[in-house]
Amino acid sequence: MTDTTTLVLGAIAQVAPEVEPELPDLDRSVDLWQELGLDSMDHLSVMTIISESTGREIPERDYPLLTTLDQIEEYLAPSGTSSSDTS
Length: 87
Fold this sequence. Notes:
Structural class: mainly alpha
Number of domains: 1
Distance between the termini: 33 Å
CATH class: Mainly Alpha
Radius of gyration: 12 Å
Largest sheet: none
CATH architecture: Orthogonal Bundle
CATH topology: Non-ribosomal Peptide Synthetase Peptidyl Carrier Protein, Chain A
Number of strands: 0
Low-confidence stretches: none
């Protein structure tokens, strides 16, 4: 498990502790929000925690691109791109 995965799963557990038992078995390519039954406010809260923890701004317009562990990890990788990088 990568540091980013640990960070994301920790943020989800912080926002929705009731889903924590499901987190270790998540498929990296599954839509986290649908799989765990989380809503858009949960998504916003998780992205805010990740942003604050990494010091990297994540514009709301990028949230729809960040639905799986793989997508979030790629986005946060040093070479990852956000929609603000292309502006």
